[in-house]
Amino acid sequence: MALLRRRNLLVAAVRSFFTARGYLEVETPYVVPAPGEEVHLRAMPAGGKWLNTSPEFAMKKLLAGGSGAIFQLARVWRDEPWSDTHAPEFTMLEWYSLGADMDGLMAETFALLRATLPPEVTSRGITTLLDAPAFLTVAEAFTRYVGADVLATEGDAPALAAQAGAKLRDGEDWEDLFFRLLLERIEPHLGRDRATFLTHWPAAQAALARKCPADPRVAERFELYVCGIELANAFVELTDADEQRARFLADRARRHALYGPDWEMDEDFLSAVAALPACSGIALGFDRLAMLATGAARIADVLWLPET
Questions:
Q1: Dihedral angle sign, alpha carbons of residues 198, 219, 209, 109
Q2: Which CATH number among 3.90.1200.10, 3.30.930.10, 2.40.10.340, 1.10.3470.10 corresponds to the domain 2-302?
């Protein structure tokens, strides 16, 4: 109960943070006709529709309708197994900042941590000081921890494997190897002594993000790690509906080839993309934030009545 009472204080602190900055709190549907378009998305069916995996599509429709800056503490579902840091049903804190670039959103995200967490946080035996964050691009991370030029080898799995000194597994493509190396060799170094922003992801790994004007090989996406935990994922939002449709069609083709047909394309969302104001958005795992606030080692410890 002590951890859950601290969770409630965290909810109040988050709401105060965004209200003071002029954000409007919204609530969008939990049952939706299309839960997303990621290739490996694991959505749960719900009476002919789907349980929400993210409030992103709905919140962008509100942005296109003129809502202004918005945030939401949303319940979401992903059909993935329990772990110390993941529950199939969890709470996502998502917000959209109008006119913000990637640097601005990273600054606001770190300000949220400083406003809602103690100066030093510990979870799963790892302690992180929240004095100043570290910044690392994906390309820099692969050079430092993998010994590979991830951008020069993009799409060429044998070349990436050779540079990394890794054995390519049967059926493993470039994207599979990219995430294996990220998980095994890079993530163990991130967000330990200092909170770490991992920025500028390969464009193919950021389907909803704008490409970087200075280098179209990468997209304006970042992830945030604290106490070794992946805490948040963010984009400078793509506002080109034609490009968004093309990306979705490519991802749908891959997903259907792997897992079979599923839901129809959300045409209302694509219409909303065409009307989006310039903005940046971020999804932050609120239950993981509660782990940091309480020092919990397991996500189940900060959930009300977890069914593990």
A1: positive
A2: 3.30.930.10
